[in-house]
From TrEMBL:
NCBIfam families: PRK00702.1, rpiA. Its EC number is 5.3.1.6. Pathway: Carbohydrate degradation; pentose phosphate pathway; D-ribose 5-phosphate from D-ribulose 5-phosphate (non-oxidative stage): step 1/1. Pfam families: Rib_5-P_isom_A (PF06026). The keyword Isomerase applies. This is ribose-5-phosphate isomerase.
């Protein structure tokens, strides 16, 4: 099964099993979630499902609008029934690395306001230990004026390398939907106590949020190469 078809499989399974009429749904960001919104739109039409959606990025908002799904926000609906989102890596404890698409801040906020966070991914995202195979680095959203001293502090405290994420179709750094920069932290020690690391990172002035989603996900659905869906709870 191709990666795209594996994503589609996982996305459809998650939407079919976790979305009910009347649900308030957090819509994640990235490429896998596109299939989840497509499946959600099919079900809304076929089953006349009543749902409202909260986006986690400009991309997610455009997806919701494109599929004519009812849009809402956290000011109106403060507690959501389910958040469906992708991940860059999922370890055996359902801890995640997210932020590959640079949307981690609103994703973590919306996930934290949802009764459950359901992860959808293709088979390449499933690993034993956090950071096992994810070589692109742990994304950290930072206030632009502080990215250099923050890089130094993290490097001194935990080692590794911190790259300021540069844009491709725009000169200069990636600027997130919230006006911040992203540092990608690579070559860190993979045997870290990630909960402790996360807490320490968040204590550094200027760090807004990290791509470490520790103890947040309820379930993960992986589209597998053989056409099956692996469910990790
Ligand atoms: O940026 C993000 O956090 C995305 O959700 C990312 O983790 C997954 O993106 P993908 O579905 O395109 O792999």
């Amino acid at each position: 099964l191709s990666l795209e078809n594996a994503k589609k499989l996982a996305a459809s399974k998650a939407v079919d099993l976790h979305v009910n009429c009347g649900d308030l749904i957090g819509i994640g960001s990235g490429s896998t979630v596109v299939y989840a919104v497509e499946r959600l739109s099919e079900r809304v039409k076929a089953d006349n499902l009543r749902v409202k959606c909260v986006p986690t990025s400009f991309q997610a908002r455009q997806l919701i609008v494109k599929h004519n799904l009812p849009l809402t926000d956290l000011e109106i609906d403060r507690e959501l029934d389910v958040c469906i989102d992708g991940a860059d890596e999922v370890d055996c404890n359902l801890n995640l690395i997210k932020g590959g698409g640079g949307c981690l801040l609103q994703e973590k906020i919306v996930a934290s306001c949802s009764k459950k966070l359901i992860i959808i991914a293709d088979y390449s995202k499933n690993s034993k230990k956090l950071g096992d195979q994810y070589k692109k680095g742990i994304p950290i959203e930072v206030v632009p004026m502080a990215y250099a001293p923050i890089s130094n502090k993290i490097q001194k405290a935990f080692g590794g390398v911190l790259d300021l994420r540069m844009a491709v179709k725009k000169a200069g750094p990636v600027v997130t939907d919230n006006g911040n920069f992203i540092l990608d932290w690579r070559e860190y020690n993979q045997d870290s106590d990630w909960d402790k690391v996360n807490t320490t990172l968040l204590s550094i002035p200027g760090v807004v949020e990290t791509g470490l989603f520790i103890n947040m996900a309820s379930k993960a659905y992986f589209g597998m190469e053989d056409g099956s869906v692996k469910i990790q709870a």
